[in-house]
TrEMBL record:
Superkingdom assignment: Bacteria
Keywords: Signal
Protein name in UniProt: Fap system outer membrane protein
Keyword match Signal: yes
Signal peptide positions on this chain: 1-20
Claim: Signal is one of the keywords in the record: yes
Amino acid sequence: MKTPMWLVVVCLAASLPTQAQTFKPIELKDQELATLRGRYVMPGRVISFGIVMTSTWQNANGEVIGATSSMQIQQSTIKPQFYVSMINEKGDGSARSQGTGTVTGGSGLNSTEGVTQVVRAAGDHNTAYNNVEINVTKASQAPATQQQGQALAAGSTLVGANGAGSLSVSSTGTGVQLNIVGNNNQGSTVQRLAQGGLMQNTTLLGGGNQVNNLTSFNVVLRDNATTGSLSGNLDQLKGLRTQGF
């Protein structure tokens, strides 16, 4: 038995609401958002954002060369700026032998994306440490700004040297880079934050060296965000685009 077409139309019409209703999005709870891959916060919640990059090289006689590059952005920040503090520590002065190790290849490391951490060793009794930290805290107001060191202008390079090696900290259109070359062919290390990626790459050719690369991202969220604060944003972050981030 065939159902009359008019009966089908009547049934469909009865199932529709009498008035058109505007679609209303459902707000997800914090517990549900916490299970999602990728997190977000409203712009007004971020009241401080900072980056700290530190690279150090200690040779076998205890002499240390390195630097710390840091930047902190808040609502009062006019222009994002990295500041560099040099690290220079004396050792015991003992003579050390020339590094004789050889490491080949690795050209593809310059084209990696995201976070890349590499240690290649061709010597003995070396220690290498690469680490990335993301620290998120809450506060009622942004922490006091305490920028230390020398300002690193865009396109400039700061250099240093001692018995452990030579250091350069540069800021270009592609980001910020800390580079250390150990004396006596002991090796080299580079830490670079640029184009949405982070590289920590250490090559050890001698012996008895200790190398550390650390990058820390520090975010402070407003503890009790109000409706007014949610409409704000950190326009200062846009300034990072000119530095390649």
